[in-house]
Amino acid sequence: MAEEKIVKEKEDIQVLLTEKRVFEPPADLAANSNVKAWMDKHGIKTLDELLEKTQDIEWFWKEMADELLDFYKPYDKVLDWDAPWAKWFVGGEYNIVHDALDKHMKTAVKDKVCFRFEGEPGEIKEWTYADMYREVNKLANAMRKLGVGKGDRVGLYMPMLVELPVAMLACAKIGAIHSVVFSGFSATALAERLNDCDTKLLITCDHFWRRGNKVALKPQADDAMKLSPTVEHCIVYKRTGDEVPWTEGRDLWWHEITADQPGECETEKLDANDLLYILYTSGTTGHPKGIQHAHAGYAVGTAATLKWVFDLKEDDVWWCAADIGWVTGHSYIVYGPMILGATSVLYEGAPAFPEADRWWDMIEKHKVSVLYTSPTAVRAHMRLGEDHPNKHDMKTLRLLGSVGEPINPEAWMWYHKFVGKDNCPIMDTWWQTETGHFMITPLPITSLKPGTATHPFPGIAAKVYNEEGEPITGAGGHLVIEKPWPGMLRGLYKNPDRYKDVYWSRFKDTYLAGDVTRMDEDGYFWIQGRADDVLNVAGHRIGNSEVESALVSHPKVAESAVIGKPHELKGESLCAFVVLMQGVEPSDELRAELREHVGVEIGKIARPDEIWFVHDVPKTRSGKIMRRVIRAKAVGEKVGDTSTLANPEAVEEIGKAH
Length: 658
Ligand code: WT7
Fold this sequence. Notes:
Elements: H1 2-17, H2 27-31, H3 34-41, H4 47-53, H5 57-68, E1 77-82, E2 85-90, E3 93-94, H6 96-100, E4 113-118, E5 124-128, H7 129-145, E6 153-157, H8 163-173, E7 177-180, H9 187-196, E8 201-205, E9 207-210, E10 213-216, H10 218-226, E11 233-237, E12 251-253, H11 254-259, E13 270-271, E14 275-281, E15 289-294, H12 295-309, E16 317-320, H13 327-340, E17 343-347, H14 358-366, E18 370-373, H15 375-384, H16 387-390, E19 399-402, H17 409-419, E20 426-428, E21 462-465, E22 476-481, H18 496-504, E23 511-519, E24 525-530, E25 534-537, E26 540-543, H19 544-552, E27 557-567, E28 571-580, H20 588-601, E29 610-614, H21 627-635, H22 649-657
Parallel strand pairs: 4-17, 6-7, 6-8, 7-14, 8-11, 11-12, 16-17, 16-18, 18-19, 19-20, 28-29
Antiparallel strand pairs: 1-2, 3-13, 4-5, 9-10, 14-15, 21-22, 22-23, 23-24, 25-26, 27-28
C-alpha cells in the first residue's frame, strides 16, 4: 500500500516535468565513436538493433571480455547463474591489476600519464603508468611483509590523493580485499565499517587540504582504531607533514616501509570470481551494507561501459570529479580508466575554491576532454553564474556526464549550454554501488532528452514493473534488472539473507533497484528517486534510519524521525523531528549540539539541515515510524490514509512545527 502511494505521488510530480526537447549527438562524434565502430564490425545498423541483439547477454559480455581483459588462464564458461548468485568467467584465472597496470608495461601506455594530480594548494604532479606500477609494487611488497595476503580485509581511509588508487591496487595485487571509507566519515562511522569486515590493516594519511584548511585524518583513524580491535597495523602516508599522534609498533610511515622495497612484485593469480573489494553503502536499517565486488566481471563491466559511453580514445583527458570514497571513484577514477590506459585528472580539494572558476580553470589548463560530475555540482556552479565558465577556453571538451541523482532539465540545459557550449552530449548515467557500472545510460549515438538516463546499456536487461511484476510503460513503477550483469554485487559481506531480502525477494529472480521509474513511449527511463527509506543528499546515499539512530544515541534524545525535503541545490535536504527525554528543554543550543552530534556519529554530510522538537512522531501500532506521513505533512502535500496510525495527533504537531 505505502509503496503504491509513493509511486503515485512521484508519478504526479513527474507529469508536471514532462520534457519534450530532443538533442541529437553531433554527427561526427556519433560516426567516429567506439560503439559505432563495434556496431559496424558486427553489421549492426541501429541503436534499437544493438540493444536487441545484446540481450543475448552471454554472447555480448564474452565479446567484451575477449576484447578488454587478459586472463592468466582462460575461463571455461561465461556465466553460471544460480539466482541470486552469479559467477562470471567461470574457471578463469585473473587479477584486475594485470589489466590495470601489469599489461601496460609491455606497451606504449607504460610512459603515458595515468593521473595528473592537482593538490588543493595548486601543485601539479604527473604519474605515469610506470610510476603507478612501481609504487603499487613497493606498497604491495611492504604489505605482504606485514603478513597481509589473499582474502584479508584492508581499510583505506584516505582523501583524494594518488596514493589512494596506489593502495587499492596494492591490495588487489596481493589478493587482499580493500574497503575504502570516505574521508568525510567520522571515527565512529569508520569504526563500524572496520569492525563489520574484521579489518586487519588500515591505511590513512596525516592531514589533507580542504577549503584552505588542513583536515586531520590520523587522529580520527586513531579514535576509530580504539574501537576496532582487529586492526593490527596502520600505515600512514605523509601528505602535509604536520605532527600526528603515534602508537609505536602499530603505526608505520608509508615512506619508511616502502623505501627499501623492490619495484617489482608478483601479482597474485586469483580466481576470476574472487573478491576485489567491499564498499559500504546505506540501506533502510541503521547499519550500512557491505557491497561485495569480484575481479573479472567488475573489470569488464567498468571498462566496457567507460569505453562506449564516454567514448574514451587514446588522447582523451578524462576527469571524473567524484571522490574515490564512493563507487563512482572506484569504477571510473581507478579501475575503468586504468584498464583502458586512460589519462585522468585527479583533484584533491573543494570545487569552487579558492575561486569560483577553479574547475573551469582546471579544464582549460589540463585540456580536459570529458567531464563527469553530479547534478549537485552542476547546480552549485549554475548558482555561481555562467560568467565563470565563460571566462575560460574549454573547447577541448567533447562529452559531459552526470551521475548520482536525477538531473533536472534546468541544470541539464545550463550544463549543456555553458559548459558544453551546445556541442557536448550529456551522458546521464544511472547506476548504483550495487551495480558496479553504468546500467541505464546514453551512448554517443543516442538522441537525448534532458532529465532522462535514456536506455539500458547493451547487455543490461532493465525494465519497469508494476506491483504485480508486469513490465509497464507510461506510468511510475519499480526499476528492475531481469538478468545478471558482470559488475553486479556478489552479495553483502557475511550477510546472504539481507542480500536476498533487499534485492531479490520482491520479484522472483529479478533484481530490485529501489528506484521509482517511468518508461516513456520511446523507451526512455525517467528515474524519479528512491522508493525506500533512503535519502539522496547531494548524490550521496544516506539512510533515514542511520541519522535517526545517530540522533537517538544522544543522551537527551528519546526518539527521532528523519525525512528528506526537496532542496534546490542538494536534491534532498535532511529534516529531523526529535522527541526529547523527559525534562529536557528544547533550545537553539541543543539544536546545534544535535547537529554536531550527528556529524561526529556519521560525518558532516549527514548533519540535518533542520531540527524540529516535537512531543511524538507518527507511528503505526507496531511502532514503525511513518516517514511517508511525516514527509507529506512537512512539505505540505496531501497526507492520505492515516488509519493505521497509533497516534494521529502527532501528525498535527508536525504540521504546526512548520
Ligand atoms: C542511487 C545509487 C552510482 C554512483 C553514485 C550513486 C541514484 C544514481 C542516477 C541518475 C537518477 C540516480 C539512484 C540510485 N542515482 N545515478 N543518473 N539519475 N538517479 O551511487 O550511492 O549507490 O546511489 O543514486 O537513486 O539508486 P549510490
